[in-house]
Design brief:
about 350 residues; Neuraminidase; 6-stranded antiparallel sheet; 5-stranded antiparallel sheet
Length: about 350
Amino acid sequence: MKALHALSICVLLAGCSTAPAPAPVAESHGVGTIVRLDPAFDALVPKDAVIEKVAGGFEFTEGPLWRPDGQLWFSDVTGNVVRSVTPAGQVTILIPKGGGETNAPAGSFIGPNAMVADKDGYVLLCQHTNRRIVRVAKDLTITPYIEKFEGKRFNSPNDLVYKSDGALYFTDPPYGLLKQDDDPAKELKFNGVFRYAGGKLTAVIKDLNRPNGLAFSPDEKTFYVDNSEEKKRIWMKYDVQADGSVSNGKLFADVTAEKEEGLPDGFKVDSQGNIWSSGPAGIWVFSPDGKHLGTLKTPEIPANCGWGDDGKTLYITARTSIYRIKLAVAGEKPLYQVYQ
């Protein structure tokens, strides 16, 4: 195995120490490799933790969401379907053509994407082909929820998160458009981050080329958004204002120089404020101050992750498969989420 350097990113916050970091430790457990870069990582990922494969044979998995019945829902963005999987690996198709009806070429990112638990057991689902967010009822019937901004259709809503006051935030990159920014069907001039509250929709961020994953810190004073672009693989952090807007954007971490494949994409925050994010070759774990603590290297490049089981199991959507690892820390519980 090639030697791993201790800090493969620069920690981009003021006061960053330049002292030599401890040598990284790469351990093969289960079907993947766990890379430990900082002693603090051991309190999050037990020494005996194992990366397990739950199910496979899909096209491009995304949007993991744990459901109260003990199953994980997930999207197949190119396969255009929403499925569920039990902890034992039993897979069920829930919503065929989950992103909408399409004649797009095979392999296009036209399907469903991220999901979030909504009130009363419902689910909000991002649809790429239909370019909207829909509400999925318990009987799996679908109704439109948010479709346009100032009379213009979205690009392709990608990821979404609730704040504790019930405001919904979501990202809208152009991945679902076949020619992305150059697609003639694109109606918005920017790829934004939006807030929906009290029936009012506002654009809170307009200057990221490919906004993708998003999350709040546990105290909701900080809002994180990443940018999924090869030439600008970064995470940003913003101050959350009393009116729900965000400001004072600062660079949180940058992996643009990394040689391994993988982009900042979907991510989650744990109850201690650590960030668990898809990135080059695996799930990168950052402390709240931006220090890279370690990496969960899955056999396939991950796109997203989410908490499940009792809230201490991290499920990972990685290309054609679903993986999981049991941790020592609980995930930050979303507003309407229910765990076992």
